[in-house]
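INPUT
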Amino acid sequence: MPDNPESFENLRLELRRGCLVVAALAQLRVEHYGYTLRKALADLGLDIDENTLYPLLRRLETQGLLVSEWREENKRNKRFYRLSTDGERTLRLLLDEWRGINGAIDRILAPPRTLTGAGRK
Amino acid sequence: MKLLTVYLDAIGNYLHVRGRGDILRELEENIRSRMEDRESELGRPLTEREQQALLLEHGTPLEVAARYGGHQGTLTFGRQLIGPEFFPFYRIVLFANWIISAVIHGGMALSRVQVDEPKAFFVSAAVQFVVITSIFCVVDFLQRRSGGVPPALHGHGQFPPTYLRDVPRWQSFNGFLAWLVIAAWWALIPSYPWLAIGSAASFVQLGPAWSTFYWPILLLLGAGLAQRAANYVHPEWNWLPPVTRLGINVIGLALIYPIHASGPYFVATNVLGSGPAAVARAFDVMTWWVAVAGFPVFLFSQVALNGWIVSQHARFHQRQRKEQAS
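OUTPUT
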């Protein structure tokens, strides 16, 4: 446990915030409504609080990254979201960025290599 | 699903009007799906307690609305003076006071009772602002110091909120007794003036003004009695108390002007000597201050409070009707 759990929690939330957007966009390559999206993400190991996910979906839609429509399913009207064309482009770029950051972090964390003779003067 | 309706209503209180319906529809669908999932896991319908737990787990209405950028509003002057829990109620009380004040002053201006009505209105509006704001600031400060606002105020701690619960029989019974005593006291004053003015009744009598408001007030007291009797028999008529109180308080406010204009309320029976006349005058001034200057403040706040509760009932029943229709 860190000495300052509150500060850790803030950093953890900050780290998660961006990841959740990428995860939601990626999962919405297939159409979902709010609840099934949350379940699908949770089944894949990413638990998102409802009060974070549902407003996030509306925000992403306002930004043009998602499109939604009200449709009947099992005799009830539900709002289904999916990725827009602009959202697909953005997701590709975000994933590139993600892989770049991931690779960089991996390299940073890798054990330092000992200097070979070629490196010595 | 009554609890869900109440929960969504409470969230709706903190959301912007624009987009409110859409957000609530979507939330309702998502929460229903979650409830159904839970029911299929358990193989039975959720009990009221389980529904309550699930809703509380979803978040307090204030928290949920805040995530959607709900306009909770605060009064901040350097630091927060009235928090989001109290702010909606503060706004209702303040605006209700201003509107009622504008109506009364407008009426007086039209009837040319006071020439300088616009000035009088702005002065009273400013006084109302200062008084109401100060009261809410103090209440907010005390609540925060004591560890938070009461759960019933933002409706998340208890489902259903108090105003949607059955009216307890003991409450109706005690209320009936209290109102019966007051109504009997009022009814007997013309026959026994000492009930109102004590021993001064030997040289002071009720003025003609009493005929203006005696019967209307007796009828209002009768309405209060009837409401309590009805709620004793039908505790489930939880809409009846706020509707009756709203009616009584609005009529009470409408009586203020006739009461103001109809004085004197007491006159001296013994015209000899200035003593009885001075006592009658003192009772007169006291009655005016209580009935015309003081009581309306109470009536204003009651109109605002009961008006808000009636609007909550109306919204709740409207949603229920929609739900049943769909």
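end of record. DSSP finds four helices and three strands in chain A.
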